[in-house]
Amino acid sequence: MAMLADGDLQTAAPMILNPARAAAFADRDAAGEVTRRLRRAWTARYLGVLAILDGAALFGAALLAEPLRYSSGKVRLGAEVAPYWVGAVAAAVLYSLIMATAGVYDRRVLGQGADEYRRLLNGGIRFIAVFALIELAFKWQVGRSVVLATIPVAIVASLLLHRLARKWLADAQARGKHLERVVVVGRERESVSFIRHLAAWGRGGLDVVAVYPGEELAWTSGDLAGTDRICDRNSFYEMVRSGQIDTVAVVDQGALGEHGLRDLGWALEGMGVDVMVAPEATDVVGPRLHLRPVAGLPLVHVEEPRFTGIGRTIEDVLGRIVAFIALVLASPLMLGVALAIRIDSPGPALFTQTRVGRNGKLFKVLKFRSMTIGAEESRDEILHLNETDAVLFKVRNDPRVTKVGRLIRRLSLDELPQLWNVVHGEMAVVGPRPPLPSEVDLYPEHVRRRLLVKPGLTGLWQVNGRADLSWDDSVRLDLHYVDNWSPTGDLVIVLRTLGAVLRGRGAY
After folding, report:
1. What is the pLDDT of residues 48-80, one digit of tens each?
2. Would residue 109 count as lying in a domain?
3. CA-to-CA distance for 432 and 479, rounded, in angstroms?
4. Close Cβ partners of 222 (under 8 Å, ≥ 6 residues apart)
């Protein structure tokens, strides 16, 4: 086994020759591991609560479905007759156990990305299969109507509960709690890029406390204020062994030298420290990345973005159906908004505007009118009030907005008529922000990738600040969505949209 350094910190082979030193290192490693375990104790409580909530979701859904078949409160389980609630409790326990086998309670998927929701949906499918096998094997007579009513409701409830749990966790992490303490391994350019990326995406539950640039001596950047720089390998391993660090994020393997990643894994073995290796393609995530062993090498396979296919078609059809149902259910509210607009100011309740859709196709977007008549023609008069940069035009206290207009913008009610654009196929439920033709005329070539998919009622721009976003941030989020689309990702955005609407951030 190769030596990690010529100093104090060595790998196991030299320690075998020096039992006293090996014992000292073992004591220090054990103390560091205890420190890490105590710091991570919250994860066990958090995951335990999630398991209980999932079981409660199934139990509650089962009780709601009981009147469909079991008015007597009894259910036949093989040759036995048992109280219905007993069967509901057993199903709830089984539901949580199957979610565990699907990896829903893996701490590595806590609070970030769509993987937690993807695993939850997979767990729901597993539960259906396992429940069907048990029913067949033990000759249980559970009504199909009850099963069909219970399981979908339980899965939806679990999704919402996990979303609320994520919101709680995100709020706690924003206050500096429940963060993974991270040391970044990489030379200056790579480390600064990684830390900037984390900051742009809300840190992702990571707290970068130090950077180890390897043997690089020159360090000119001032962008790491407040973050320690570890100058030698001994100090790096000492920090990790002492329990100050939960995770090592390797963003540049060259900083570790030849066989450095292998030696790092050996050195940290048994200490409970996570090791993450960041691919250079930081803008490619999720289902497009797959680990593909080739000739003994763990290569990362990057799939092409998916703009067509069965997944896109199914989501488009489902989106239109959901939009139609939402349009019908929201019609009384929309009628009330229309009346309020007509009473508040002269002019029609609806406002149409030309926007650019998929592949550059123009369409008329429908909105409730929130401005005075002639607002478009008077835009040049308030150009000096523009608060955004580059292409976008936004004014926080736009004098053209009516009283009712401010209210419906704050609650995003002005966008309800766009449900018709979704039904008509011009927009999707989730997608990039629908741009104006004047904005598209100013697009650089790479930004035109936003037009490869349908614009959406909501999207990453909606749940990450809306009008408060700069032009560069808006482009970054839209291009990230276009290149990394997945059905589960869209589900996450929909779940986050409700909170964004209620908060009203960037809605003006």
Report:
1. 999 999 999 999 998 888 776 665 566 666 556
2. yes
3. 8
4. none
Other beta carbons less than 10 A from residue 310's beta carbon: 8
In a domain, 212, yes or no: yes
The whole-number pLDDT of residue 505 equals 58
Q: Tell me: do 274 and 257 sit in the same domain.
A: yes
> Between these two residues, 178 and 4, which has the higher pLDDT value?
178
Measured between alpha carbons, how far is 83 from 89 in angstroms, rounded to an integer? 10
268 in the same domain as 331: no
Domain of 190, CATH number, reads 3.40.50.20
73 found inside a domain: yes
How far is 373 from 240, CA to CA, in rounded Å?
A: 64
184 & 202 share domain: yes
Structure tokens at 22: 């090996």
What does the buried/exposed string (b/e) look like for 55-64 if buried means 16 or more CB atoms within 10 Å of the residue's CB? bbbbbbbbee
Strands 247-250 and 274-277, by their bridges, are parallel
pLDDT tens-digit readout, 254-288: 777 777 777 788 777 777 788 888 766 556 665 66
- In the chain, how many domains are there? 3
Compute the distance between CA of residue 306 and CA of residue 314 in angstroms, rounded to an integer. Answer: 13
Residue 107: give the domain boundaries: 41-174
Specify if 494 maps to a domain.
yes
Sheet of 80-83: strand order equals 80-83, 74-77, 140-141
- Domain shared by 79 and 164, yes or no: yes
Nearest alpha-carbon partner for 478 in 505, 506, 465, 459: 459
